[in-house]
Design brief:
Chain lengths: 750, 473
């Protein structure tokens, strides 16, 4: 079934924050931010900017009526910098003007005198200086002390992975409109409207019921608008409160890239021990996460790294230690996979290194250690309905690994300038917020008297198709046409205290809440229909295709006339329902429990061709067998899988976040930061749906899809390494993603 | 300024340096055209621009963020709103069916670019069709679904033929690929056209803008504060003149015009393929060679090719003209041997003769639609295995686009061999002074230039220069 939202998109009629027809008298805001990565503000001069015609106000931290604080997990981030700046891009002042150009010009006239300090720019340096966001987190199982003597093979090494810019096509933005009684309505491009509401209330020192946050849709987010949309929404609200006028704040791309956080770079050390057959016995890993200047979501991301430290493998003895290191870069934040990919890249590197030592293909080790039913994860949960081996075997069979191997070997023996490489990449990803209390959702469903239906939930539509899935839930339960169902904006006054739309959980949580709400109404309707038709056993009543059936035979009632009658009989046609994922729990002291409702599995086969003169490459194919559960919408789900794969490939290859020695981002435009374009897309991009996978924990037996396929991209790194090794047998290399053409060439010839 | 915007003739007196994007969104409330990056790198703001060419209108796609509104005089601008019909067009329908749109922000740009291809794209084929959306970035889909949507539309056209006497526009509107009104535009445009067949300078005495694809990236906001002078060449003028030995090209010629020139492609085999790496179609449609040369980017691709062709510039100030070798035009970083008021009139070079070969190499982080880490061109004349003449150029390794004079001198007169190619590298290394930046470390750029020089010879002389001699040690 097609996504109905797409129709507006293709006609250019979908509305984003910057497209809102703002009320008359709206002021435009621009942000003055720190040009220095670390230092003391000695003087801030806004006088010249203030004198400009058209400038209506300039605000600093001194103008904040409540708490100058936006930290969600740890309160360590000022909305507007006070005396200290800790990263380039930290907002210092907000300028309001009649038009956007004047606001921008005024920002250029603000002068700040900062006494600079030496910035910390990498997590290992931060760790050495004891600059940490919080105490370390350790997950362990089995024995990792004496076990090493029992291992036949031990491999050790270091792994680095870089940051990643979200590059949502729509930049951050918000419009705040003052209402009567000191209330503010904020239209925000956020994945987390409740956080916007909560933070705005605290900053403005008003009760939360005075702040209404409304979200229509986002032009892409990928995690970048989970925590980091809040600041701009709250700044707009602050100015709207001060000036009693609507305020619009939309970041230009260049500013957005400089001031917003990215995927966390990680530096890690590993030690892996195996028996001579390739069975992994023990794994020890230390993660140094580059959190940037404040916590943001880093602690939660660090946890997810630990949860995914062993990827899709059963390892009986594991010790994983993780440090969240405070540096002077923009606070890094959620990005598709949420720390999982960083953890999985390390175990894959460890396996690669071990395989090299053993003189075997990494796939031998990968296959031998795949999770089987009831295998225990290092955090205590048991693998249930594990599809790890099924996906692997399907991939090996369907994509014919043996002929792939032969093809690559033949090509490499015949070619001197070009070399091919392939790799397999299995994935296992846990579904649920790892912070158990967040696994909940609310839904408000109305049936109007003409039979049309409105669904409000906490889910934010950002391109992932959650609105369409919610419509499908309601349409299928009431058995009405999909055009009868509308999803409303996400609004904190309609559905309150929501979790962000994140962790791939939007459709599951909000879908389940919608399901309950619809069933509540349906129960009433069934009873009413029985009353109208004079039937005692309401069990014989069925709603089907907008008609009402009794014992399989159509009655005189259809959806339209029945709803009118139900309304006349004063039947409640609305329901609010709440869903909380059952059974999950996690003890944050022992670090054991059952944090995930279920896991998503899959295996991909990737192939690359490397140009050994020039160092650039082409990813020829990515083919995956993926466990979608029972997909609710294959068009949407396949699109999610493909899009995630491409972002994963980008992260591993050409997407490179670089800073200079002052901590200034130098890949701060689209001409210096490159994401995959249409030519980069592999000619073969094939996602096969694993058959017969039912998942009662997911909405309508489906599985979450947003994040897991991202990690197939990791295989590209190892396919490239293999191609490079075909060119140079005794290749000396590091595990240091992304594998840019520069690194390829420097590794092969440097 | 008067032009046609979608269905209507409009006139406006906004600041001539206003970008077409801002004009559409902020003055005309046409919000379907999105602002994604303001540097021509995402394609979310793509529009179609139609210009008279004989009795027809030639449409090309362009990034509205990099176009001064002044340059729209007498043209037809089509935005996404101007492509909608009641219901969905063929491509819109396929994009919906295939899931070619997720968040929807980039989608209008894709629709506009590909529809532009349908209108103006010559004989349809998948490679060109994909290239037509090569300047549009979608962060959600990974482009797989968009590729399928494009391919479905082409398949549809394969089975549906033009009627006798039907032109492309009528045909497309009959098949619901474009709205019908577009066939009425040529007549409408005739009414408002004033200048024809000229290279016009509008609003003179300002900062010259010829295309704007560089200057509007770097200082669109500063341009709003000063006068600009828009130089624009009518599509009816062929800026490329081929003489007996000399080829001369008007500075206002666009990169696309060079790419599509049959004569130049004959002269420089492979030119079309090289130019796939120069930038996206919407950029090449607007970028002028004069603008590229004057922008003095050390990494400019156009400049790189003309340096290896050992080109000369004709500079003009009113009636006064002078000639200068392109390689002598650059004095330092973004510093030119150009007097106040002087403009490049044309660029000329000797047409490569027999026994002469040309090659262009470019490596960037992303192969397409990216700025090079290092680029290099070579023009080489071989007679009986002796290098009679050679010019190697390179970009990205010095403050200026570089002609590798010492390296070229060294190779001249030598017997072609792997050994001499290897020896020439030492000269190249002496001539360059790369810095570390977002496009790579200085060490990498040195290594890469060596590899690109190797690539020239491996590609041009595979029978003499073998990979095992240069790549395997």
């Amino acid at each position: 079934m097609n996504n109905i939202d797409s129709i507006k998109h293709t006609r250019g009629e979908s509305v984003f924050i910057d497209d809102f027809n703002v009320p008359e008298g709206t002021l435009h805001a621009a942000v003055f931010y720190s040009p220095v990565a670390h230092g003391h503000i000695k003087n801030l001069d806004i006088s010249e900017a203030g004198k400009m015609a058209g400038v209506k106000g300039i605000y600093t931290y001194k103008d904040i009526p409540g708490k100058n604080q936006i930290g969600g997990i740890i309160e360590d981030e000022n909305l507007l910098a006070e005396n200290i700046v800790e990263f380039i891009g930290h907002p210092i002042a907000l300028v309001l003007a009649d038009d956007w150009l004047t606001a921008r010009e005024a920002v250029k006239k603000i002068k700040v005198d900062i006494e600079e300090q030496i910035p910390i720019l990498d997590p290992r340096t931060a760790f050495e200086k004891n600059s940490l966001i919080m105490p370390p987190r350790i997950f362990s199982c089995g024995d990792t002390d004496s076990i090493w003597s029992k291992c036949d093979v031990i491999a050790e090494g270091r792994v680095d992975s870089g940051g990643q810019e979200h590059l949502y096509l729509e930049t951050q933005g918000a419009v705040a409109v003052p209402l009567e009684g000191d209330c503010i309505k904020i239209y925000s491009a956020t994945q987390n409207p409740s956080a916007v509401q909560r933070t705005a209330a605290a900053v403005l020192n008003v009760p939360q019921n005075k702040i209404e946050c409304d979200v229509l849709r986002l032009g892409g987010a990928f995690g970048g608008k989970e925590d980091q949309a809040t600041a701009w929404a709250v700044l707009a609200a602050l100015a709207a409160t001060k000036l009693k006028r609507p305020v619009k704040l939309v970041l230009l791309r260049h500013d957005d890239m400089i001031v917003t956080g990215k995927r966390h770079p990680y530096s890690s050390d590993f030690k892996i021990g195996l028996d001579k057959e390739g069975k992994i016995i023990a794994y020890e890993v230390t993660f140094y996460q580059d959190a940037g200047a404040s916590a943001d979501l880093s602690p939660a991301i660090l946890d997810r790294t630990l949860f995914h430290a062993a990827n899709s493998y059963y390892i009986p003895n594991v010790k994983a230690t993780a440090y969240s290191c405070k540096t002077n870069l923009t606070p890094n934040t959620a990005f598709r996979g949420f720390g999982g990919p960083q953890g999985m890249f390390v175990i894959e590197s460890a396996i690669y290194k071990a395989a090299e030592k053993m003189g075997i293909e990494p796939s031998v080790i990968q296959e031998k250690n795949l999770l089987r039913e009831n295998n225990e994860f290092p955090y205590g949960q048991k693998a249930e309905n594990s599809n790890a081996e099924r996906c692997w075997n399907e991939a090996v069979r369907k994509f014919d690994l043996n002929s792939e191997r032969k093809k690559v070997e033949e090509f490499n023996s015949e070619n001197k300038i070009y070399k091919k490489g392939f790799a397999l990449m299995p994935i296992c990803f846990g579904i649920s917020f790892t912070n158990t209390p967040m696994n909940r959702a609310g839904a408000l469903v109305h049936i109007y008297t003409d039979g049309s239906i409105g669904v409000s939930t906490g889910a934010v539509e950002m391109g992932q198709g959650v609105n369409m899935k919610l419509r499908q839930v309601a349409a299928s339960l009431f058995s009405v046409g999909i055009d009868k169902v509308k999803t409303e904006t996400t609004n904190t006054s309609r559905v309150a205290n929501t979790s962000p739309t994140a962790a791939s959980s939007g459709a599951d949580l909000n879908g389940k809440a919608t399901e309950i709400a619809c069933k509540n109404i349906l129960e009433r309707l069934t009873k009413t229909a029985a009353d109208i038709l004079g039937i005692e056993n309401s069990g014989s009543i069925k709603f089907k295709d907008e008609k009402i059936y009794v014992n399989g035979k159509p009655s005189d009632l259809n959806w339209k006339n029945f709803i009118i009658e139900a309304n006349t009989r004063r039947v409640n046609l609305s329901s609010y329902a709440y869903y909380a994922t059952p059974e999950i729990h996690f003890d944050r002291i022992t670090n054991k429990g059952k944090p995930f409702a279920y896991h998503v599995y899959g295996t991909a086969l990737l192939e690359v061709t490397l140009d050994c003169i020039r160092g650039n490459y082409k990813i020829n194919s990515v083919k995956a067998v993926h466990d979608f559960g029972k997909s609710m919408n294959p068009v949407i789900d396949r699109g999610q899988a493909e899009g995630a794969i491409m972002q994963g490939l980008g992260w591993m290859t050409i997407e490179e976040v670089l800073h200079n020695e002052k901590g200034r981002l130098i890949t701060d435009t689209l001409s210096t930061y490159k994401v995959p374009d249409i030519h980069f897309t592999p000619e073969e991009l094939e996602v096969v749906f694993l058959e017969n996978s039912e998942n009662p924990q997911g909405i309508f037996n489906s599985k979450a899809i947003g994040e897991p396929p991202f990690m197939y991209g990791i295989g590209a790194y190892f396919a490239l390494l293999n191609a490079m090794k075909s060119f140079k047998k005794d290749l000396k290399y590091k595990f240091d993603a992304p594998m840019t053409p520069e690194k390829v060439l420097m590794t092969m010839y440097g | 300024m008067r032009f046609i915007l979608n269905r209507d003739i409009i006139s406006t007196d906004v600041n001539p340096a206003t970008s077409l994007l801002d004009f559409l969104r902020r003055n005309q409330n046409l919000k379907g055209t999105k602002e994604g990056c303001r540097e021509g790198d995402c394609g979310a703001c793509t529009v179609l621009i139609g210009e008279s060419e004989g009795n027809n209108i030639n449409y090309h796609n362009a990034n509205s963020c990099l176009i001064p509104i002044a340059d729209m005089e007498g043209k037809h601008v089509i935005t996404i709103e101007g492509l909608n019909i009641s219901g969905l067009t063929l491509f819109q329908k396929e994009m919906v069916e295939e899931g070619g749109t997720q968040c929807g922000f980039c989608t209008p740009g894709f629709i506009v670019s590909f529809t532009g291809y349908l209108i103006n794209g010559g004989k349809y084929n998948l490679k060109d069709a994909i290239e037509s959306v090569g300047g549009n970035i979608c962060r959600c889909t990974g482009h797989g679904t968009i590729r399928r949507a494009v391919s479905n539309v082409l398949n549809y056209f394969e089975t549906t033929e033009l009627k006798k006497g039907e032109n492309r526009i009528k045909y497309l509107s009959r098949l619901n690929a474009i709205p019908a009104y577009i066939s009425d535009i040529p007549l409408k445009l005739k009414k408002i056209e004033r200048r024809k067949n000229v290279i016009a300078q509008r609003i003179i005495k300002g900062e010259p803008v010829c295309g704007g694809t560089d200057i509007f990236v770097q200082k669109w906001d500063e341009l709003l504060k000063k006068k600009i002078s828009v130089i624009t060449k009518s599509k009816n003028i062929n800026g490329i003149k081929i003489g007996k030995n000399i080829c001369s090209i008007k500075a206002s010629t666009t990169v696309t015009e060079i790419e599509e020139s049959k004569e130049l492609n004959k002269m420089i085999p492979g030119l079309k393929d090289y130019m796939l790496l120069f930038g996206s179609i919407p950029i090449k449609n607007r970028a002028s060679i004069g603008g590229n040369i004057n922008n003095a980017s050390p990494i400019g691709d156009v400049t790189n090719i003309f340096l290896a062709l050992n080109s000369k510039l004709i500079l003009k100030k009113k009636k006064a003209k002078r000639e200068i070798f392109l390689k002598d035009y650059y004095k330092g970083y973004k510093s030119l041997d150009r007097k106040k008021g002087e403009l490049i009139d044309e660029i000329k070079f000797t047409i490569p003769g027999k026994n002469t070969k040309f090659n262009f190499e470019k490596v960037s982080k992303r192969t397409f639609l990216d700025i090079a880490s290092v680029n290099s061109s070579i023009l080489i004349k071989i007679k009986k295995d002796i290098i009679e003449d050679v010019h190697i150029s390179t970009g990205g390794v010095a403050p200026i686009p570089l002609h590798l004079t010492l390296t070229s001198e060294f190779l001249k007169g030598k017997l072609l061999s792997s050994e001499k190619v290897k020896k020439s590298i030492a000269y190249a290394m002496k001539e360059i002074s790369p810095i570390s930046d977002a496009r790579g470390s200085a060490d990498y750029k040195r290594l890469l230039l060596r590899q690109l020089i190797y690539a020239h010879f491996l590609k041009l002389f595979p029978e003499v220069i073998k990979p095992e001699d240069l790549l395997y040690e």
